[in-house]
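Risk register update: the risk of archive-format incompatibility is retired. Evidence:
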Amino acid sequence: MKDIKSLLLILLLALSTSFAQEVKDKVKLSGLMFGDYYYNIDNSDGAKKDLNGFQFRRIYITADYAVADNFDARFRLESDQSANSNTAGGKIGVMVKDAYIKWKGVFTGSDLTFGVSPTPAFDIAEAAWGYRSVEKTIMDYNGIVSSRDLGVDLRGKITESGSVNYWVKIANNSGNASETDKYKRYYALVQVKPAEGFQATGYFDYASKAQVTDKFDKSLKSNDAVVAGLFLNYQLKSDFAVGFEGFTRSIQNGYNQANSTTALKNQSTLGLSFWAWASLTEKIRVVARYDNYDPNTDKDNDGTSLIVAGLDFKVAKNVSIIPNIEVLTYQTAPKLNGSTSTKDFQGKVTMAISF
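Archived output:
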């Protein structure tokens, strides 16, 4: 009996070791963290001027699992110190950022994805910009399109060489949240790589939404929205990169007045972003960006401009310390809590780590 028990124990240990090795071979764990010490040198909100402190703006833990030869899955948790992921008590909480399965090669050159996954809007632009640790790209920064949506994607090559690629998606238009209505968002992107180091993308999405009531004539009117964008980027290895991103958005009957003396009209939004980075030495880069944003082209003095500048010190592989400044200027001062300033001027020392 003792010999049988010993044999069973050895067999169980062998099986568990084999299973652990199999899981290890199929699972890849990775992570990302960035945060800063920040100081509000000036602010359009009097209560926030001189506010300073330490903060985490992103923490990722990602598990990529090879389910089968042609199926991959990703599960990613995100945490930061924003209201989106904080607990009810205001402490750092956790939210599901990605949860999807990918059918690789559903047909030649294309993959099918289902679940909570990135949207086509600025995934490519953000990767080229490379400094999400400093600031979001323009469409993300201004909340034009969510970075994630729950739905189905089809993404792949139009040409065998990969010089022309596509990405289409249909999703809830609810971000990481549950669906609450019958309306959907339809995304499409085409990426072209005509020469080494150069890429261009054309982006389009259509969001169907519930009708709205016009206070002027009490009638129901469409409130659907369309976003179109263009991204251009040239990068010379690790020496330097330049980029341009522009977008326009039109919301049917989205521009209203606080009263009912005039009818609803379409609201048009325009955004332009120019950025560049250049390596001064092997471990030091200079980074700069300028954005101009007009939320309603028919309304005067409601626009903003953003200036970002910094130095990236690569102190180790996958570790950067980035002193930087951000200046957000308003055409009209918000006049919050006694402030008459037309700008939010913040200095930061950012640390970014990936593993």
